[in-house]
Automatic annotation (TrEMBL):
Pfam family, one: Trypsin
Peptidase S1 domain sequence ranges: 26-254
SUPFAM superfamilies for the chain: Trypsin-like serine proteases (SSF50494)
Name of the protein in its database record: Peptidase S1 domain-containing protein
Keyword annotations from UniProtKB, A to Z: Disulfide bond, Hydrolase, Protease, Serine protease, Signal
Keyword set includes Secreted: no
Native source organism of the sequence: Drosophila rhopaloa
Signal peptide from the UniProt entry: 1-19
Segments crossing the lipid bilayer: none
Gene3D superfamilies named among the record's database cross-references: Trypsin-like serine proteases (2.40.10.10)
Matching PROSITE patterns: TRYPSIN_DOM
Amino acid sequence: MLQTVCLLFLVILPWSASGAPNNCEIVGDVVTIKDVPWQASIRSDKKNICSGVILNTKYIIAPSDCVAKKALPSLKVSVGSSSRGTGGTEVGVCKVTIHPQSGKKNYGSNLALLNLCEALKLTDSIKEIQVIDKEPDLKANATTSGWGIVSWGAMLRKPCATVSAYVLRKLDVSLQDAKSCSKDRKRWFGMSTGITEQNICVTKKSDSCSFDKGAPLVIDGKLAGIMALGDCSKKPEVFINLFHHKTWLESNSKDK
């Protein structure tokens, strides 16, 4: 086991030392947190597990499967830093509210609200973002942002993913409807893809690795979705369409 770990380290080290190679296909432009000040990184036991988005000074939106089984004392939210894992402001999580329809069988409502133990202080690097108030227009100009995917599967397939996992990037994207997205993500033997009408997707032009789960989808300065499924394939990325959950988000993100 130790030999395997050491070998993996030696494979990854050249990318960490000299930057990603040209064929790594890391997409998006490098940006600072001031370009996407609503971006958050969620950690458990000091490990980055996914991205989140600042809904308001006390609540973070995140994918439910990132946090559902995590002990509250282990959960931290980092905001205000371009570099994942260093700098910025780190705040504890005092409560996690899981969407009642969240489950592993579909990606339409896998949402969680993280109630922070203390309110964030808004700055140029830490800002709230409003949820979209209408069904997203598939022809709209949209962007996603985040750090690279942190799953071991991605890192083993593309060692350069260890570089992108800590560099904040932003990407212009094209939207795709849930029905055609489901066809493009079809599984063997007719198994359900888990994609519903409560999803919206983003097309991919190459098999580059996605941003991490929880990455925001932004249209006209408003939050349209968060990533529920992404990988290192050419298949479309799946986002939860937050317009369908606006009432739930509003009613559960107010301090009683």
